[in-house]
Automatic annotation (TrEMBL):
EC numbers on record: 2.3.1.234
Family: Belongs to the KAE1 / TsaD family.
Keyword Lipoprotein: no
Alphabetical keyword list: Acyltransferase, Cytoplasm, Iron, Metal-binding, Transferase, tRNA processing
Gene label: tsaD
UniProt protein name: tRNA N6-adenosine threonylcarbamoyltransferase
Cofactor: Fe(2+)
Catalytic activity entry: L-threonylcarbamoyladenylate + adenosine(37) in tRNA = N(6)-L-threonylcarbamoyladenosine(37) in tRNA + AMP + H(+)
Length: 351
């Protein structure tokens, strides 16, 4: 079974071709990601109108590049998977319109995919992990623990009540005049800092359950920064490193403890991570230790497949299709689409 995947939910225009082998394994024949970071850099965040226009301009090329890199033509495909949400409506529509056009022209089945399901099913794409397993999705837009029991069966054990950790890393970088996206820069500075100098709060650790919070932590770092500036008139290189180290230690503590609780609540043989924050070495090491202690296998897919890509969408489409899922020309996009909640009103074309 060979699927084309199309992903345009945020600021990466992506297309990929993925084949499911008869033994259940997967082959990524191509995975093209055309980023837009440079278009949004000056604005300090993703601008929806700019993203929508860029997706519309890039998506045809991304799909052609993915087909040609995979050495397949449309006739070799068995289906088309497209992200239908959650995300920015304008971008999602670019991907969906192309998918509908291709499906109408070729007669191939089209399968709408939840972007979060794409992330959540990635361990099956990369490592053929069996159901059930536990997933920690930690990205710029999301932070949640998911019990993954089937291609369309997800239970949320907990999620952030405010910011996502990647967002917090980005805001800390901004506070300290480090480049965006901030995660890798904060990690680099933190490695050279003293993590004992600042003791930042560990939000929600005093409360039971797996929900998380990161916005108070960000405020605490801001206050500590302003205090140093008030005292000394500015930040030294070492101040900045120490602030990063203290911040990252707090994030790692929170994620580690909540992961321990999630594994206790849902004792799965595997805990997998996805999302850009999973790139953080210090955080990974803590999660690995928690998994070891619980007797679970810790799985961190290659970074390219942890961040936004279309291979995960193609794969999630294959899994949904094998479970009987298919959509028609009335498929619409959704800006909000929780994995485990009832459907929300549809926005966009079709209905
Ligand atoms: P989503 O996919 O949830 O809509 P997104 O596209 O912003 O959100 P990703 O592309 O998965 O998320 O990840 C990007 C985020 O990961 C950014 O916030 C970035 O700062 C963060 N990040 C990347 N590398 C690191 C790192 N080494 N340490 C911490 N955070 C990191
Ligand atoms: Fe994502």
């Amino acid at each position: 079974l060979t699927f084309l995947g199309i992903e345009t939910s945020c600021d990466d225009t992506a297309a990929a071709v993925v084949r499911r082998l008869s033994d259940g394994g997967a082959l990524i024949l191509s995975s093209v990601v055309e980023g837009q970071a440079e278009l949004h850099a000056a604005f300090g965040g993703v601008v929806p109108e700019i993203a929508a226009r860029a997706h519309a301009e890039k998506i045809d090329h991304a799909v052609e590049a993915a087909l040609s890199a995979a050495s397949v033509s449309l006739a070799d495909l068995d289906g088309i998977a497209v992200t239908a949400g959650p995300g920015l409506i304008g971008g999602l529509l670019s991907g969906l319109m192309l998918a509908k056009g291709l499906a109408a022209a070729t007669g191939l089945p089209m399968v709408g995919v939840n972007h979060l399901a794409g992330h959540a099913l990635t361990p099956r794409l990369t490592d053929a992990v069996a159901y059930p397993y536990l997933m920690l999705l930690v990205s710029g837009g999301h932070c949640q623990f998911l019990a993954v029991e089937g291609p369309e069966t997800f239970h949320r054990l907990g999620s952030t009540i405010d910011d996502a950790p990647g967002e917090a890393f980005d805001k800390i970088a901004k506070l300290l005049a480090l480049p965006q996206p901030g995660g890798p820069h904060v990690e680099r500075e933190a490695a050279l800092g003293d993590l004992a100098r600042f003791r930042f709060p560990r939000p929600l650790l005093d409360r039971p359950g797996c929900d998380l919070s990161f916005s108070g932590l960000k405020t605490a770092v801001l206050r500590a920064r302003d205090e140093i500036i008030a005292q000394k008139g500015g930040l030294t290189v070492q101040d900045r490193r120490d602030l990063c180290a203290g911040f990252q230690a707090a994030v790692a503590d929170v994620l580690a403890e909540k992961t321990r609780r999630a594994l206790a609540a849902f004792p799965a043989p595997v805990i997998a991570v996805a999302g850009g924050v999973a790139a953080n070495g210090a955080i990974r090491a803590r999660l690995q230790a928690v998994a070891d202690q619980a007797g679970a296998r810790f799985l961190a897919p290659p970074l390219k497949l942890c961040t936004d890509n279309a291979a995960m969408i193609a794969w999630a489409g294959i899994e949904r299709h094998l479970a009987g899922g298919v959509d028609d020309a009335t498929l619409s996009v959704r800006s909000r689409w929780p994995l485990d909640a009832a459907a929300v009103p549809l926005i966009g074309s079709g209905k």
